[in-house]
Design a protein that fits this description.
The protein is an alpha+beta fold and about 160 residues long. It has a single domain, classed as START domain (Alpha-D-Glucose-1,6-Bisphosphate, Chain A, domain 4), CATH 3.30.530.20. Helices cover about 30% and strands about 35% of the residues. The protein is built from 5 helices and 7 strands. It has helices spanning about 5-10, 20-30, 30-40, 120-145, 150-155, and strands at about 10-20, 40-45, 50-60, 60-70, 75-80, 95-105, 110-115. A 7-stranded antiparallel β-sheet has the order 1-7-6-5-4-3-2. The longest helix has 22 residues, at about 120-145.
């Protein structure tokens, strides 16, 4: 088995129900102000193929990439990696992994199918899974119309 085929299997998958229609949840993925309610202190998101994605997750920790696919309000795929200054920058550089959000209508809500693929090491999978397990419930709360409150991780950085 080649290193490349092993690398392709290193991914994170999550599913969660959000008490809002896909059109509402979509806005929390692409609207910069709404993005900041659940993850990030600053965000730039151009939801068109080739568009820039840049999110300062916590102070000094910036992820960047490029939109690969945007099919509102069903699917958003972008590349992901950390800019210099992050502990993960050498392991997961900008554009080296892929994040995918699939929004499936489910009654009056949305089933979010999430994947983060092409992570290079088991340690990077563990670190990113820890992060997504912190932020996806915040998306679930905000998307469902409630206030997730201040991000405790951002507060830890100040």
């Amino acid at each position: 088995m080649t290193t490349e085929s092993i690398r392709e299997r290193l991914e994170i998958r999550r599913e969660l129900l959000i008490a809002a229609r896909p059109e509402t949840v979509w806005e929390f993925l692409v609207d910069e102000t709404k993005q900041q309610r659940w993850m990030g202190g600053a965000a730039t998101i151009d939801p068109r193929p080739g568009g820039v994605v840049r999110i300062e997750v916590v102070s000094g920790q910036v992820v960047s990439g490029e939109v690969v696919e945007a099919d509102p309000p069903r699917r958003l795929v972008y590349t992901w990696g950390w800019e210099g200054g992050s502990d993960d920058a050498n392991v997961v550089p900008p554009g080296s992994s892929t994040v995918e959000f699939e929004l499936v209508p489910d009654g009056n809500g949305t089933l979010l199918r999430f994947a983060h693929r092409d992570l290079p090491t088991e340690e990077s999978v563990e670190r990113h899974a820890h992060g997504w397990d912190h932020y996806l419930p915040r998306l679930q709360t905000a998307g469902g119309g409630a206030d997730p409150g201040p991000d405790s991780w951002a507060a830890d950085e100040s």
